[in-house]
Amino acid sequence: MIRLAGLAFMFSASILLQILACAIYSNWWPMLSALMYVLVPMPCLFFGGGSTQFLMSRDGGGWIDGAKFLTGASAVGSIAIPVILRHADLIGTGAMFIEFTSFFIFVCTFLCYHRASLDDEW
Predict the structure, then answer these.
(1) How many C-beta neighbours within 10 Å does residue 95 have?
(2) How far is CA 8 from CA 11, 59, 115, in A?
(3) pTM assigned to the model
């Protein structure tokens, strides 16, 4: 139960930083990264049966390889969108670094969930 609460807290902190990156600078362009937060778990849900274990396996196949590619593309997009927006001067440097911090917390949340799902206690 404490693990689940910790994961919920980490995810909430990530979303809070996402919103703060927009609200502090009065610019809502950084919310484009939130689209990637929605897209990252979708391949696991659709092609992996709701499990993250297929991401670490070497087993292949059309759907599994496609799911790995989509997960990787979504993760790279989460980093690339703030960089592109900063390069186009649509967001400030501070908002970009807040976005990176939010992404780092989100990735840590995902890795903690993956580790916890490998345990039989869940």
Answers:
(1) 22
(2) 5, 31, 15
(3) 0.81
